[in-house]
Structure formats: structure tokens, C-alpha cells
Design a protein that fits this description.
Helix content: over 70%
Distance between the termini: 56 Å
Number of domains: 1
Strand content: under 5%
Number of strands: 0
Number of helices: 12
Oligomer: single chain
Shape: globular
């Protein structure tokens, strides 16, 4: 494990995702939301298909129709539609702050639907994190904006995607999942364009931002994959929240946004509770691995002792 390299890769990935959000937000200023979704999905599909060909894997496969894969693709499509729509309407700082609740929702979903054990400490962290989201949304007040619920929908869709991914058979390649997920977003973009009645535009600025967002997003996806394979979870996972730091910096420096105190306070609660949850899960996983190793060692010692006793028995009998 090279934790230092993994940490650098994770920080780079989070910077890339923050830049992707910024570029996509700027793209929606001159292009219809549906067109941005189509460009993102089409470009991502092409990139992953090329990677599949390099690995000798096919895009079309019977595994595409595995139930968990189809549910994941639907969740990916819903997430893409919600995210791009939210970026067009919601301040980047607010969008990024709410999006950080994803790990908490995944932990909640794992407990409710997958039977994963969650102790009172992590339940408390989930409650605190949701209180932070409420501080950001402020329902029932003049500051509440219905479009902020698009980010909440994106968080839910991302959680479904990640939870279902845990149940996908190991014979399905990660690159295939990525390619299918990207392809699933294309019909969503076309549907949004059709419902909104917005024909595609050839705005050079918007097309450039879309291409930049897609390129940075693919590079960030590759970096985060390398980071999770190179370093320990306890080191790498908490660095996901660096994305919010980059997003806030870009929102202030590039877009001129000024998040208010309530948004910052809510973001702090979400990040703090999420960090605690991730660290707690990593500690529990490390404890479980240590217990398993100790049990395996005891079993090996017991087998060795039995073998020695069995070997000694004939010698003892022969000496009588």
C-alpha cells in the first residue's frame, strides 16, 4: 500500500470533480440542459468503449440485462439528469455542500435495505448530517428554493447506484458498468430536450465547457479508481470531502458566489458527520480483519498441534 501516492491521487480526483461541476454549470449557461447531458453521456460512453476494446472486453453483453445492472443504470441516468439540472439552477457552493451527504445516505441505505450493522454512533452521525442538510435547504423559510431538491434527488440516486453496485456479480467488469451507466444517461438528455422543447445549439463556448467537463471528469474517475486500489480506505476515503473545499474556492473565485453563514454551518455538519462515519467504518473494518486473522492463526496453530500429537502417538506406541 502506497498511502502517500493514493492520497495525492484522491485529492487530484476531488479537484477534477469540482472542476467538472464548474465546467458543466458554465456549459448550461449557453446550452440546453438536455444537450449537456447527451454530450456528457455520449462522450463518456465513447471513452469507456475505447477502454473496453483495449482490454479485450465488449460493450454488448448478456450481463447488461442482469437485474442489478439494469437498476444501477437507471440510478445512474437519474443521477445525471438531477445533477446537470441542479448545476444549471443551484449555486455551486450549495450544490456541493448538499452532495456531500451521499456517504451518509449510503450508510443509511446499507442498514435499511442490505442488513448492514450500524451502531448508535453512526446513527447519531447520520442524524447530525441530515440536520446539516436541513440547515442548507431551510424548508419553510423565504430562503428555501425548490430547485435545491434536485440535489437531494441526485444524492438519493447516487446512493441507490452505489448500494446496488455492491450486489452486482463479480464477473461484470468495472469498465463495462461505467460504459453502460454513461450510455443510460443519453436517453435522459434526449427526453429532457423533448419535454423542454429546446433544440440543440451550436454555441462554441458551451460545447467547449462540455468537452472540458467530460475530459476532466474521466481523468478524475481514473484517478479515484487508482487511489482506492493503491491506498488504505482509512487514508483515502476521508479525502473525498476535499471536493467541497475546491468547490467553495471555485464558486467564490470564478462565479463570485458568497455562501451565507447557514450554508457554511450546514456544510460543516454534513462534512463532520460524514468524516466520522467513514472513519468509524474503516476502524470497524480493520478490527474485523484483525479478528479474522487472529482466528485463522489460532486455527492454524490448533491444526499444527493436532498434527504433532498425531505424529507423536505412533512413536509412543512403538516404544511400549
Amino acid at each position: 500500500m502506497d498511502n502517500f501516492r493514493a492520497a495525492l491521487l484522491m485529492v487530484a480526483a476531488m479537484a477534477g470533480f469540482a472542476l467538472e461541476d464548474l465546467f458543466l454549470k458554465q456549459a448550461t449557461a449557453t446550452l440546453p440542459v438536455g444537450q449537456v447531458i447527451v454530450l456528457l453521456g455520449g462522450g463518456g460512453t465513447l471513452a469507456f468503449v475505447l477502454l473496453l476494446r483495449r482490454r479485450g472486453l465488449g460493450f454488448l453483453s448478456p450481463l447488461l440485462f442482469v437485474r442489478q445492472v439494469m437498476v444501477r443504470n437507471l440510478a445512474e441516468a437519474a443521477a445525471a439528469g438531477s445533477i446537470v439540472s441542479a448545476l444549471a439552477l443551484v449555486p455551486l457552493a450549495t450544490f456541493s455542500a448538499i452532495l456531500q451527504a451521499s456517504p451518509l445516505v449510503i450508510t443509511l441505505g446499507g442498514a435499511l435495505f442490505l442488513g448492514e450493522r450500524v451502531g448508535w454512533r453512526r446513527w447519531s452521525a447520520i442524524v447530525v448530517g441530515f440536520c446539516g442538510v436541513i440547515l442548507i435547504l431551510r424548508p419553510g423559510t423565504p430562503e428555501f428554493r425548490p430547485e435545491h431538491l434536485l440535489v437531494v434527488a441526485a444524492v438519493g440516486a447516487l446512493a441507490v447506484r452505489d448500494l446496488v453496485t455492491r450486489r452486482i456479480p463479480g464477473r461484470v467488469a468495472t469498465l463495462q458498468l461505467a460504459a453502460w451507466g454513461m450510455a443510460a444517461t443519453i436517453p435522459v438528455g434526449l427526453g429532457v430536450m423533448l419535454l423542454a422543447g429546446t433544440p440543440p445549439r451550436l454555441a462554441a463556448e458551451g460545447l467547449g465547457y462540455s468537452l472540458a467537463g467530460m475530459s476532466v471528469g474521466i481523468a478524475a474517475y481514473y484517478a479515484i479508481t487508482l487511489a482506492t486500489r493503491t491506498g488504505e480506505v482509512a487514508v483515502v476515503a476521508p479525502l473525498r470531502y476535499v471536493r467541497l473545499v475546491f468547490a467553495l474556492g471555485l464558486a467564490v473565485a470564478v462565479l463570485g458566489e458568497r455562501p451565507d453563514a447557514m450554508t457554511l454551518a450546514g456544510a460543516a455538519l454534513v462534512v463532520g458527520s460524514g468524516l466520522y462515519t467513514l472513519l468509524r467504518e474503516a476502524r470497524l473494518a480493520a478490527g474485523a480483519r484483525a479478528t479474522a486473522r487472529a482466528a485463522a492463526r489460532r486455527a492454524a496453530e490448533a491444526l499444527a498441534a493436532e498434527a504433532m500429537a498425531a505424529e507423536a502417538s505412533p512413536k509412543a506406541g512403538g516404544g511400549v
